[in-house]
Amino acid sequence: MTEHCWIRIAAVDTIPLREGRAVQIGDREIAIFNLGDRFLATGNRCPHRGGPLCDGIVTGTAVVCPLHGWKVGLDDGRVMRPAAEARCVATYPVRVDEGLIVVGMPASAGAASGRSEGAAA
């Protein structure tokens, strides 16, 4: 079982419904998505050409990259379109704690400060 370092990101009301936001946690750029009933987190860069997934269109539990239309599952990070692609993006556990979005980063990721850039106080 992987241990996580939980990082406070932002208040839940700062990410509008069915949208994403990018945050920098250490050397990782993470996209946080508000699905209404939950928040999900993935790496922010599309595996095709590095497009910012946080700026994509959220549809169901997937996001469509704004650059070339690749569709990435937010639950598992797998590329859904084009169907033949085996590439994926990293996913991270998310929880809501007292109105704050909290992301679990692998303890080995070196997130020693326990906070992200622009994290909620």
Describe this structure in words.
The protein has 121 residues and is mostly beta strands. It has a single domain (4-109), classed as Rieske Iron-sulfur Protein (3-layer Sandwich). It has strands at 4-11, 20-25, 28-34, 39-43, 57-59, 62-64, 71-73, 79-81, 91-92, 94-97, 100-106. The protein has a four-stranded antiparallel beta sheet with strand order 2-3-4-9, with no helix packed on it. A hairpin with a 5-residue loop joins strand 7 (71-73) and strand 8 (79-81).
Give keywords.
single chain, 121 residues, mainly beta, Rieske Iron-sulfur Protein, 4-stranded antiparallel β-sheet, 11 strands, 0% helix
Explain briefly what this protein structure is.
The chain has 121 residues and is mostly beta strands. The chain has one domain: Rieske Iron-sulfur Protein. It is 0% helix and 42% strand.
Topology:
Elements: E1 4-11, E2 20-25, E3 28-34, E4 39-43, E5 57-59, E6 62-64, E7 71-73, E8 79-81, E9 91-92, E10 94-97, E11 100-106
Antiparallel strand pairs: 1-11, 2-3, 3-4, 4-9, 5-6, 6-7, 7-8, 10-11
CATH architecture heading: 3-layer Sandwich
What's the SSE pattern? Answer: EEEEEEEEEEE
Strand arrangement across the biggest beta sheet: 2-3-4-9
Radius of gyration: 14 Å
CATH fold descriptor:
Rieske Iron-sulfur Protein
Structural class: mainly beta
